[in-house]
Specification:
By secondary structure, the protein is an all-alpha fold. It has 2 domains: about 100 residues, no CATH class; about 80 residues, Winged helix-like DNA-binding domain superfamily/Winged helix DNA-binding domain (Arc Repressor Mutant, subunit A). The protein has 7 helices and no strands. Helix 1 crosses helix 3 and helix 4 crosses helix 7. The termini are far apart.
Length: about 200
């Protein structure tokens, strides 16, 4: 008598698993390219490391949050990816400095300028409408400090607001605004020789 219900439950579980895997596949197709660009910039062009970090983040996302909605996956994925990146950077710092465990490793300057409001700064995506190519922008991004890269790409490329970006980066909103502002200033300086319209200050 209870064989049918058991069979139906097995079918339901199989369907849910298939649906989750299908959603993950579509999600991966959407974000992999941008996530790889972000990680390659953060690891200074180490494609293999970047690929590993992105894949590990996908695995962790699927393992821990497969029941969440696709919309929830976006900030969750980048939060996981940020943690993977920070872990990798700490390991690299310790490898480069064998005795660094005796002191706190300061990976980036987290000083804040809370009076900066990044929303008032001209959108970096406007660069694409001028004489600067995406490849030139990517090269300029790779020259920024990692936290500035993250703030810029999460805000400008992924479209996260300041609050969500702060949660992903595990820092204050003031830090996000500071990193984002400095990233834009750095990009303007790097790209000014390619387009004179980018040479002015946004102050």
């Amino acid at each position: 008598m209870d064989l049918a219900p058991k069979q139906l439950k097995a079918q339901d579980a199989s369907t849910l698993k298939s649906t989750a895997e299908s959603r993950l596949k579509n999600f991966m197709q959407d974000v992999t390219g941008r996530a790889l660009v972000m990680m390659e910039s953060a690891t200074q062009g180490q494609h293999g490391i970047a690929m590993d970090l992105v894949q590990e983040a996908f695995i962790s996302l699927h393992k821990s949050y497969s029941d969440r909605s696709t919309e929830e996956w976006y900030p969750l994925f980048y939060t996981i990816l940020n943690h993977k990146l920070q872990d990798w950077r700490r390991k690299e710092a310790r490898r480069a400095q064998p005795f660094s465990f005796f002191k706190k490793i300061q990976l980036d300057d987290e000083s804040e300028l809370d009076d900066l409001v990044d929303e008032t700064t001209p959108s970096p995506l406007e660069f694409l409408d001028q004489a600067v190519t995406a490849e030139e922008i990517q090269q300029a991004i790779s020259q920024l400090p990692v936290r500035q890269q993250q703030a810029f790409m999460l805000r400008a490329w992924e479209g996260f607001d300041t609050h969500t970006t702060a949660q992903i980066m595990n820092c204050s909103e003031g830090s996000v605004k500071t990193h984002y502002h400095r990233a834009i200033q750095g990009l303007r300086a790097s790209l000014a020789h390619l387009d004179p319209f980018l040479g002015g200050s946004s102050e």
